[in-house]
Every structure is written in structure tokens, then in C-alpha cells.
Amino acid sequence: MLIDIEPGQVFDMLAIINVKINQSTDGLKEKNIENFEELAAQIKKRIGELKFNQIFESPEYEELYQSNLDTYNLVELAQKDNNLAGRIDRQNYDRFVKKSILQKKFFNEDIKEIKIGY
Predict the structure, then answer these.
(1) pLDDT of 2 above 70
(2) How far is it, in rounded angstroms, from Cα 70 to Cα 60?
(3) 111 within a domain of the structure (yes/no)
(4) Is the dihedral of CA 82, 83, 87, 89 positive or negative?
(5) Total of domains in the chain
(6) How far is it, in rounded angstroms, from Cα 94 to Cα 11?
(7) pLDDT digits (tens, 9 = 90+) for 31-89
(8) In a domain, 61, yes or no
(9) Number of H helices, E strands in the chain
(10) Which of 9, 22, 53, 114 is the least buried, fewest Cβ under 10 Å from its Cβ?
């Protein structure tokens, strides 16, 4: 079953899977590649390959990917150090901002997700 969600959220999911591909070294890498290809195909079907490539190759997507990678790295550190909660929270908000920028630029829509406390 497919559920409609905002474009920024979809590209955020794609970036998260992309991070997991690049951080995986075992059998999970293959599963993440499958997930990436499946989601990319669904996105292309909805918005077209040209628009998909325009977004995927954009600096906005690269910044969203990097924000997700930074979040991933902080979560990895947090598993070993409990004093990182504030840094992780700020990094998660940064990811939200990057996702919002990407959606606004390519779809001219604001994110509906509300962040509390910012």
C-alpha cells in the first residue's frame, strides 16, 4: 500500500537510506540498496526522472544527505556517550531545516511537519 507524504519527507527518506548504504558493510548493504532503488523508482514514477535527477544532483539534496550523515554519526557516538543529547537534538533540527529547504525549492510547498520548541 502506498501512502502520500510530502516530497521533502520522501527525499529525506531517500537520503537516510543512502547514508545506510554508505555506512553498511554486511548483508544489510544489499537490502538498503534494494530499498533505495525501490523508493527511487516510486519517486520517478510520481515526478518524472528529469525532476528526480534535478533534485538528487542538487546542492540541497547533498546538504540533506550530509545532515543525515551527521545525525547518523552523532547517534553512533551517543550510543557510547550520554552527554550528546543536545548536539543530537540540534543536528536533528538541522536535518529538518534542510528537508524544508529542498521541498520549498523544488515543490514550492512548505513542510507540514511542526517542530516543537524551535
Answers:
(1) no
(2) 15
(3) no
(4) positive
(5) 1
(6) 15
(7) 889 999 999 999 999 999 999 999 999 999 999 999 999 998 887 777 676 676 778 87
(8) yes
(9) 5, 0
(10) 114
The residue written with cell numbers 528537508 in the block is 99
List Cβ neighbours of 3 (8 Å cut-off, separation of 6 or more): none
The cell numbers describing 25, all together, are 558493510
Tell me how many degrees the CA angle 83-16-43 measures, rounded to the nearest 5: 155
pTM, entire model: 0.77
Range of the structural domain that residue 71 is part of: 7-21+29-106
Separation of alpha carbons 41 and 106, rounded Å = 18
Judge whether residue 1 has pLDDT over 60: no
User: Is 113 inside a domain boundary?
Assistant: no
What the block records as the C-alpha cell of 56 is 538528487
- Does some domain include residue 37? yes
